[in-house]
Amino acid sequence: MESFLSLRPLVLVVAPGDEVYRGYCLRQVADAYDVAVLTTGPLTWEQPYVVDHEVVEDFDDVDGLLAAAGSIAARRPISGVLTWNEAHLTAVARLAEVLGLAVTSTQSVLTCRDKAAGRAAFARHGVPSARSVAASCLDEALAVAEEIGFPVVVKPAAVGGSIGVIKAETREGLAEAYAFATRGVQLHGGDNRTVLVEEYLSGQEVSVECVTYEGVTAAVAVTRKELGPEPLFEEVGHTLTADDPLLEHVAPVAVAAVRATGVTGGIQHVELRLTPTGPRVIEVNGRIGGDWIGWALWRATGLSLPRIAADIAVGAVPDLTPTRRQSVAIKALYAPASGTLTERSIVSGFAETAGWVHGPAWLMNEGDQVLLPPEGDLDSARVGLLATHADTLDLAVARRTAAAGHITLTVAGRR
Fold first, then answer.
1. Whole-prediction pTM value?
2. Whether the bond into 374 is cis, omega within 30 of 0
3. Which residue from 23, 194, 255, 337 has the fewest beta carbons nearer than 10 Å?
4. How far is CA 149 from CA 78, 140, 145, 194, 198, in A?
5. What is the torsional sign of CA 13, 18, 19, 21?
6. Distance of CA 188 to the CA centre of its chain
7. Mean pLDDT by 10 residues, the chain (415 residues)
8. What is the set of domains in the chain, with CATH numbers?
């Protein structure tokens, strides 16, 4: 696949993922490095950005990953290994350790992946968080909730995207909440089948985007999240602005949370709630944030988290100097109801003429079935993503509203 001898280091990306959500990640890494990828099938959208490729049957099979990486390494040395796929962080950390290319330990990745282990680490290190107890059955969940005090949050221990996360206001509502979280575990939980019952944290939810190099963590941006109505915690939008004054307030807590997990290298997406008693940590994710948050950070500041992740993976000192001062507003496009998607469109020429619209990028096609929460989740409910940018946050948000007004989403069989 490689037609010339390149002097650029080779970065191995495991599970590059969906083009809509993660296409910008692969493109930005390929701008600076030669890229090899491991996928479970033939290359599709990744083709223009890749110089080598191997197929694996199971991303969680470390021996299979090692064999595929060995095939690539036999053709050309691998300088760094990374993934931005939440489900495969642990396996890729083990692969990096075996290859002698680890930037953090597998144990630290496990601590981030397991929300219960993360909570325990925060408690040991005095990081403000929420009380959290594992429950293996409904009776245990009821006992824990009574002890913590209602309302509580019930969630899978190792599932991303707010899937299976729900608030229970009363003892009577806990059975339904526990069943909802358990379904999230069964559909998306992988090897970790644990359900957690946690103290409910009130206040605005934010994430702090962090970079850790050789054990030193820098908080580079704060993302303000927009959530759908409770009892669910669906992320429906995000805003990110360079030089947000909130960053100075939340950065120390986020940095302390990363330190508590033992992470020594890579990108971290640290979620917090701004409670009446101050910022309290929800979780540390050892990856670039989803929903285009990494793209928003690049658009707003000029910092490319995928490029920085690759720099760290190959042992290069990352440059964290911002080169832009802008704001971004992101909107997740949800269908108005469950049913068959009959139309998804934007007024022709609007985005191109405006010049400040990114997307929309469609996740569903006309004819697909839409299933909204609580019966469905973001995978079955989101039709696409849209973002706008501007020199100020107010203008970026106003532009997002204007752009959304040019989009049509129609379903048949509303219920």
1. 0.94
2. yes
3. 337
4. 51, 14, 6, 20, 9
5. negative
6. 15
7. 71 97 98 98 98 96 96 97 95 97 98 92 97 92 95 85 88 93 75 83 97 98 96 95 97 98 98 97 96 98 98 98 98 96 97 97 97 89 97 98 98 76
8. 10-102 (3.40.50.20), 131-199 (3.30.1490.20), 202-325 (3.30.470.20), 330-415 (3.30.470.20)
